[in-house]
Give the backbone structure.
Amino acid sequence: MSKAEEIISRFSIPGKLVSMSVNKQGHINSTFISVFDDNGVIRKYTHQMINCAVFPHPDEVMENIVSVTEHIRKKTGKEASTLHVIMTTDGKPFLIDDEGMYWRTYSFIDNVQTYDKVPNEDIAYALGKGIGTFQSELSDFDSSRLHIVIPRFHDMRMRYGQLSEAVRRDTRNRLRYVQTELSYLMDNKERGERIWDMYEKGEIPARVTHNDTKINNVLFSSETGEAEAVIDLDTIMPGTILFDTGDMIRTACSTANEDERDTSLMEFSVPFYKALERGYLETASFLTEKERSLIKESGRTITQIMAVRFLTDYLAGDTYYKIAYDEHNLVRARTQIALMESMDRQWEDF
Ligand code: ADP
Ligand code: GN1
Ligand code: MG
């Protein structure tokens, strides 16, 4: 029995393991898909080794996920509308292997489509609707019940602090390659801090926030094209919903992948923005006037925080995000900056 098979056998899954494959879409966890045959009934599962460098308290991550998904399931009455945590044979939501790694299992949500980039306005609209629905389903969930699994996750000041530290250390001698990007980000620092500052001062309310609403964390029904489930709930915490509007705008309105090397292909799409916003506002009925007025700015802010984080990781030697080649984080930082510049060029049009 391979190590993965041995781990999977300790979750409460009926039937026989038929096959296993790897999913490489995320930047953080290690994800495997399994197929089980239970007396002729075929079921699929997602198994993940949680990245403990990013999430030092995986037990708290799982507690958050279990309580939020139970809330959504009760409200919608639909099994596939959210992640379903499969317990271990001794009734726990995670397993610790002999090397101290944490593993979890979800039912695989099938007949869905995922995208790294929005293909058309219909999908942008569906994404907006899906995120608005997700937030509405959790609008009566008391966010103070959630563990803060990564403190100050979207605190722009803290992220700039990490960037300055990475610049100071320059451990990989890469500073010389990033002068243009660094000066752009420094010039935009103050504007980028506004939303976090308003949140910290209590000018915008704390709500349950997903914190990672990028397009490939939403599963779309292959039949209807509608958003079926919002997944990757690791970072669910109290925050402002503007972090979530921001990340959906960042990933739904861009014309190129996050790691496109040719930045001239990265533009902000106003038609996608309009479709996304329409879907979102149809379902997110709980917003205050102030929140509504900041939606557009949130897209720029979250794009900026990603640029800062990718550049920081590049300078620090790629210790956080998974990379496929040496300059991967620099390429990602550059696309984010290109997206911000494209937004600014069209700012009056959306
Ligand atoms: P990461 O934190 O590394 O981004 P995710 O939880 O987002 O990990 O999972 C990575 C990818 O695996 C997702 O983008 C999605 O394509 C797929 N995936 C994860 N969980 C499920 C699930 N329950 N059903 C179907 N696909 C899933
Ligand atoms: C990471 O896990 P994944 O790939 O969905 C990251 C997000 C970033 C995103 C950028 C816990 O998301 O914050 O926005 O990469 N997740 C964590 O693509 O840091
Ligand atoms: Mg993900």
Notes: The CA atoms of residues 227 and 267 lie 24 Å apart. The pocket of magnesium ion (ligand 3) is lined by residues 26, 217, 232 (CB under 6 Å). The chain has a mean pLDDT of 97.
